[in-house]
Each structure stands twice: as structure tokens, then as C-alpha cells.
Write a structure and sequence with these properties.
single chain; mainly alpha; Glutathione S-transferase Yfyf (Class Pi), Chain A, domain 2; 7 helices; 2 strands; 57% helix; Glutathione_S-Trfase
């Protein structure tokens, strides 16, 4: 379980941690930006967690969920404001587990999702944490 201690603040759950960091460091400086990030964090926890961490991803809801995300990502670099944000940390952190947990899953039907995963995985912080060959 992810956890964060920052001075007197103690948090668990990735979504709460991401929103806290976003608020603290100014990314969510308006209610609209915070809501936009929050919807993706909640969506990732509600939709992707149960879909991607099942024994058989093909018979789960993964294709439907990934098809929806693929359509949303059409013409977009990232989820919120076309710049990397905590929303992308939330969503990509689930998606980037697909090759690890489901190496035989054919994601070629979702080209926008694959390109998005590549963009997120090419970020220096991701490569420092996960390595440069994490998607292979």
C-alpha cells in the first residue's frame, strides 16, 4: 500500500497522495484543474484496478475500458491540459503494468493507449524508477 509522510501529514492510497502533491506543488491551482485531475484518479482506481489485476484480462472488461480510453486519447498527448499531470501518474501507473502481468495481451487494438504508454514510459522519472525497458 502506498504511503506518504510529509511533516505532520500522513497519507495512504495513491489517489489521496497524488491529489495532496498536486495541491501542495501548485498543479491544481483552480477548482476546475483539481476536479479534472481528480476525475482521472478516481476513474483509474475504479475502472483500471479491477480490470487489469484479474487472472484473465481478455474475459474481463479491459477491452471496453481500453476502447473508451483510446477514444479519449485520440489527438491528445496527455489526459489533462495536454501536459503530464497527476492524472497521468494515476492512469499510466495501471496501464504500464499490462506487459508485466499480462504479457500475451494484444493491445494493438488500442493504438492511442499504446502511444500514451510510450510517452509516459519515456519520461526520465519513470525510467529512473522502472528502467528503460519496462514496456518490453
Amino acid at each position: 500500500m502506498p504511503g506518504l509522510r510529509d511533516d505532520k501529514v500522513e497519507l495512504f492510497e495513491s489517489g489521496a497522495i497524488l491529489l495532496y502533491l498536486s495541491d501542495k506543488y501548485g498543479e491544481s491551482n483552480t477548482p476546475e484543474k483539481r476536479a479534472d485531475a481528480a476525475k482521472w484518479i478516481v476513474w483509474a482506481n475504479a475502472e483500471l484496478d479491477g480490470v487489469l489485476f484479474t487472472r484473465d484480462i481478455e474475459v474481463a472488461r479491459a477491452p471496453k475500458v481500453l476502447m473508451q480510453l483510446d477514444a479519449i486519447l485520440n489527438g491528445k498527448e496527455f489526459l489533462v491540459g495536454n501536459q503530464f499531470s497527476v492524472a497521468d501518474v494515476a492512469v499510466a501507473s495501471y496501464l504500464l503494468f499490462i506487459p508485466l502481468f499480462h504479457p500475451n495481451f494484444d493491445a494493438s487494438r488500442f493504438p492511442n493507449v499504446l502511444q500514451y504508454m510510450d510517452r509516459c514510459a519515456s519520461r526520465p522519472a519513470f525510467q529512473k524508477t522502472m528502467g528503460t525497458n519496462a514496456l518490453q
